[in-house]
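re: ur question from yesterday

yeah so i grabbed the chain u mentioned. its 653 aa long if i counted rite. heres the sequnce exactly as i have it in my notes:
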Amino acid sequence: MAPMARPSGSTRLSPPAWLTAGFKPTPTPIPWAAVGRAAVALSAPLAVGLAAGQPAYGALVSMGALSGVIGDTADAYRMRILNIAVPQLFGAVGVTLGTLVFGHGWVAVAVLTLVALVSGMISSIGAVASVSGLLLLLNAVVGAGLPMPDPWWKAPLLLGLGGLFVLVLTLLGWPFRRAAPERSAVAATYRSVAELYEATGTPAYDEKRQAVTASLNQSYDLVLARRARQHGRAPSLVRLLAQLNVAVPLVEAAPAAHLRAQLHGPLSDTIPAAVRELADAVEEGRTGAPVLDLPTPERPAEKAVDHALRYAAAVVHKAEPDAYNVDDRLGRPAALRVRVRRAARAALFSEASWRYGLRLALCIGLAQALVSLIPVPRSYWVALTVTFVMKPDFGSVFSRAVLRAFGTAAGLLLAALVLAEVPRGWWDVPVMCVLAALIPAFSEKGYAFQTAAITPVILLLSDTLNQQGFDLVMPRLYDSLIGCGIALIAGYLLWPESWHSRIGDRLADAVADAAAYVTCAFGGAEDQGGRLRARRKLYRDLSTVRSEFQRALTEPPPTGTRAAAWWPLVVAVERIVDATTAARIRVDHGAPGPDPAEVVAVERELRELAEGIRESETLVEVRSELPGDENGVLAPLRQEVSAARAIAGPDLR
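ran it thru and got these structure tokens back, copy pasting raw so excuse formatting
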């Protein structure tokens, strides 16, 4: 019997996508090395504490290790040292301040509010500063809410030992894999370029180009960060940087190859295969004369790809790269002291920095004031919840509050089972080993999953300090809901900026930069390095816009719907940059150059589009096709600019 057809007018009731997006696990592989480190780092201190007759001391060391496990997110070893060690120093300051104001009522409220202001302001500096600010506030909240052992310096010392233990476990592989993360990143960049060439002429090209941009950015961040901290020039690092530099011409030739594939059919399979061979050579450290069997190029785009591939093969297989290949043509990082000074100035004088700091301080102040006026057992959990939800660079406040509530509830179910059925004592060690292993495994799946994994670990450590057992479970749920409510009201609803997407302003900047890129490519003196830096900055800006777009989609209406309306223009601007690069590559390899008046007209249209985006939430009016030679090198670029100008309508209001 056939199933009954659903009436055409009926609809299936389901939660909106913006609410359920965070509950879908990200399909990422399990980081087994991190899983093993977490299991050892959190369970071993408990075992030592029990053996020494001081389980509370072991719990504090495990808490410090937990912070190190959460902060160990970098790939390169030198960055991992910073990501773990520097936040531990801030955490020591935080727990010291919290311990000194423990039990002092309104003094604790004032101190934690000030600490929250500082934490929010420094979070905008960078990744290390963000984790440092988080740990500063978290440890201050814990120190002000839990009784710590005397004297005052013992708690920061024990927490620091936990972070140091994680650092030691992390660096065990350094002697054997000193440059392995950087080498793997550069090889991955070449493989992403191979996939990009395979996708030329197909709808998958845009997605693959975004993957190349992300991979290239990550590789440069890793290699240049290591180089900035290393005195002298290690031969292996010099070679890696040269190999990464010569991937840039391959990336730059891809838009021209994509246009050629759209008009004349796909590229030869030998091209992506040759790029993959370069990736293998980078990862294996192979040298020697390269063997390339490439088709004879005929068109300018084919000549550009052939030239870039042969150049990359020559450098990748060299044991000692030439001197002119050593420096990063896309820009070298400033000295560490210069970057620290710039970051401090930005944090002190940035309006966004103060705004986030004040929002976080308001929420922490309200949380502490509430638990000071209303007797809440172990009330530190309220401020702890606010800290995680309100962390300014972790994404949407609204989404994190919802995900935090559900994640905490799921984690409490597991914690209730452990606290109710597992006797305290030596059984805590194997239980902690299993629970700690879940943290890195679940953290990659999403915020709700990370919260569900961390919650039972914190509760088990808290029970070791307080001996409350199963009585901890329900108060923690109530405290989490109170903290989420404070974050939603005082950190979201009371701030009108939360209701508006920032994509428009950032996209306007990207369009203006695209206009400058057109001028740089065709409007004057030849500056290849400047053109490459401008292009890289543009794609970084557009990656930021994409991240902001993903964040905004998790906001409730109207923020999410307004943000979604900008998406076609984001894609259009990326295509404008690709079309500009393709035109420049074709000119470099034999195509006739454009009329200067045509370049000026394209630049003017882009700058008007940027101003139209800034002035209102409705794009400027649609114009007719830009004048110019229909067979000229800028014809595809003019089509992309006209398409971008045509994206307008009531949906953007």
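noticed a couple things. The chain has three domains: 17-174+347-498, 180-325, 501-652. also The chain has 26 helices and no strands.
anyway ttyl
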